[in-house]
Amino acid sequence: xxxxxxxxxxxxxxxxxxxxxxxxxxxxSTPPGLTKYVxxxxxxxIYGKTNPERQFIEDYWQEVCDAFEATGITNDLMALVSxxxxxxxxxxxxxxxxxxxxxxDDVDWHAMAGKEVLFAERLPKPNISGSSINMGPxxxxxxxxxxxSSAKKNFQGLSxxxxxxxxxxxxxxxxxxxxxxxxxxxxxxxxxxxxxSMPLDQAPASLSLALRNDMIIMTLGTDILKExxxxxxxxxxxxxxxxxxxxxMALQGLPEAxxxxxxxxxxxxxxxxxxxxxxxxxxxxxxxxxxxxxxxxAAALNRQALKAYGEKDYKKALSLIKKANEADPDSxxxxxxxxxxxxxxxxxEDALTWLTxxxxxxxHDPQQIxxxxxxxxxxxxxxxxxxxxxxxxxxxxxxxxxxxxxIAIVNRIFETIGIMDYSATVEYTEGRTTHSxxxxxLVKDAASNPFYPVIASHKPLKQYSRYLPKETESFSVxxxxxxxxxxxxxxxxxxxxxxxxxxxxxxxxQVQQQHGxxxxxxxxxxxxxxxxxxxxxxxxxxxxxxxxxVTDEEVAREKLTMGLKHLSEAMQQMAxxxxxxxxxxxxxAESTDERLPDFLAISIGSTTMQLGVVDGxxxxxTSADAIALCRDTAMGKHPNITKNQxxxxxxxxxxxxxxxxSFTDKRGLGNELAGLMSGISMGGSMAMMMIPxxxxxxxxxxxxxxxxxxxxxxxxIDFYESSSSSTTFNGxxxxxxxxxxxxxxxxxxxxx
Length: 752
Prior knowledge:
Layout: H1 3-16, E1 25-26, E2 44-50, H2 55-71, H3 73-82, H4 87-105, H5 109-112, E3 116-122, E4 127-129, E5 132-134, E6 139-145, H6 148-173, E7 178-181, E8 189-195, E9 207-212, E10 215-220, H7 222-232, H8 245-251, E11 260-265, H9 266-283, E12 287-288, E13 292-293, H10 296-310, H11 314-327, H12 332-344, H13 348-360, H14 366-371, H15 382-398, H16 402-417, E14 420-430, E15 433-442, H17 452-456, E16 472-479, H18 483-495, H19 499-515, H20 519-522, E17 527-538, E18 541-550, H21 553-577, E19 586-590, E20 600-604, E21 607-614, E22 617-621, H22 624-634, H23 645-650, E23 660-665, H24 669-688, H25 694-714, E24 720-729, E25 733-742, H26 745-751
Helix pairs in contact: 2-25, 3-25, 9-10, 9-16, 10-11, 11-12, 12-13, 13-15, 24-25
C-alpha cells in the first residue's frame, strides 16, 4: 500500500469526525499560525503543523496500514456486499468504485496538509422571527496548508470530486437537486456544492472549497468561509481566535505546544443554545407558575426584543422590552427581561429595580436568576441576593405546573453543563515520548453550582505508592466523584418536576423501607471515593487487586455478605429457568488462607477470587498472594513501586496532592488485541451453532473470517511502551499531564 492511500483514509476519517487525527500533523502555539484566520466565536478548534520529530509514529502506523492492506479485507467486504446485489447493481458499484478511486488518486493528500492543518466549529445564532424559532446547521471550517504548486493541483482534484458528486446525485435522483457554482464576491478561487432550488445565501447548508496561495479551505456554510477569507486578506477587523482573550487565558499555565492544541469553549457553545431555548420558552406565551403571565401584545414585543438580543443589538432589545412593559406593566417575565437588558447595557441600578419588581410580579424562577450571565454584574449586590431568596421561597410555595417544571428541568440541565468553562490541551514530543497537558476550568462561581459537590467534594489524595508493590506493571489511584452528592443531586432534580416528582420519591422511599435497604445509608455512604487498582507480575503471570476505601469496615463487611447472598440466590433462580446459566453460578466460601482472615473465596465458573474488607478498604484480588503482597507493601515489609525504576523513569508523577494518577504497561498491547480478535472469532463460531438459517450462517462465516484476518494486523501495534497520567485540582481547574512512551525498533524486534 502506498502512502497516498494511507493518507486518504486519514483525511476522510478526519472529515467524518470533524477533527484531525493524523499522527504526523502537530501544532505549535507560537506563532499562532492558522488560528489567526479563525473567528473568535468558534467553540472548538483543533490546529496542527508538521513536526519531523513525530515521523517515527507515522512510520509505525504505516506498518499497520500495510498489514491491513495485505489482508485483502477490503475486497472481502466488497464481495460480501456484492452478494446482496443484482448483476446490474454490482456493475454500478464497480463503476463508482473505479471512478472514486481515480478521483482520490488525483489528490496528493499528504502534500495538501504537509505544513499545517486546522478544524474549527461554531454554532450559528438562532433565527428568531415572531413565532418562528430555529437554528441552522453548525459552521465548520477545515484549513490545509501545503505548498502553492500542490495546493493548486489538489484544489483542481477536490473540485472534480465536488462536480462528480453533484453529477452522481442528480443522475440517481433523476433531477437537478444539487449544483456546483462559483460564487462571486469572495476574491478567491471558490467552488460550492449547494441545493439547486434556492439562492446560495438562503441555503441551509452548502459545502465550499477555496484556494488561496498555498492553502485549501473547505467550509460548511458560506458565512464562515467569507469571514475566514476576510481574515486572510486583511479585510476583517474583528478579533480572530488567536487574539481572543479567552483563548489566551486557556493556554496560560500550559507548556509550549510543539505538537498539538485543542481548544473547547463550553460557554461559547452553550450561549446560542440557551438563546434558542429561552426564545422557545418565551414563545409559549400564556402563563407559567414560575414566570408569571404575559398578554398577547406584550408577548409579541417580548419575542421581538429577544430576536434583537440574539443579534446582539442590546439597545434595540431594551427599547422593545420597554414597549412590552408598557403593553403589560404586570408581566413578571417582561420585567425580568428588562432587568437583563438593563444590566447588559450597563444600567445596573435600573436592572436591580426591575429584577425586584419581576420577582414581586410573579417571576419565581430562582435557577434562571442564579445562572443568567446577563445578571452576573449584579450578583454581589444585596438586592440581587434578596430577590433571589424571595424567588426561591415563592417557587417552593406555589409548586410547579407542567410547563414550569419543563422550564426548571431545562434550566437544571444548562446549569449542570454550564459549570464547565473551557478546556485546552497541548502536546509536544521529546525523543520517543509524547507529552500532553490538559487544562479544564470551571466557571468562577462554580462552587455555588448544585453539581459542584458531586465533582469537587472529595479531598485530594497525598499518597499513591502505599499499596503498590515493586512488581507493579500497571496501576491507577484516584479520588472519584461523590456518589452521595450525586444521589442528592438526582433527588433534588426529581423534586423540581413538582407533585409528580415528589410522588416518585415517596414511592422510592416506600420501596427501600419494604426491602429494609437504604441506598444512601447502606451503600453510597460506605464509600469514600478513593479507588486503587494494581496489576503486578507473579509466578503464575499477572495478578490484580482492586481496592475501594470504605467509611466503616464492620458495616461494609455486613453489607457485602448480605449482597453476595442476594446475588447468589438471584443467579440460582436464573439457572433454574435457564440451565445454561448454571455455569455462571456464584459460589462463596470462607477463605482458607490464614493471611486473609474474614475473606471470602468467590467463584464464578472456573474463576476464583478473594474478597474482603481490611485496612479500611474493600479488596478484590485474583489471588490471596496478590492481596497479601499489597498489604505487606503497605506495612513496609516489601519494597513499593518507588523501587521500580522503569515506572519511576517514565511515569507522570505529581508533586504534592493529586486527584488521580495511573500507569499502563502497553508492551503487550498488540498481542492482547490479537487475542481479542481471536476470541471474537471463536465466540462467533460458537454462536453460529444457534443460527438455523444457512444463508445467515454463510454471512457470519465471511464476517468472522474478516475478523480473524485482523489478528495479525493489530499484532503490529506493538510499538507502545507505556502510558501514564496524573491530575491535580485546585478547586476550579483540573490540570492533567499524560505521557506516552514508544519502543525503539530494535526493542520491538527482540520482544517479538
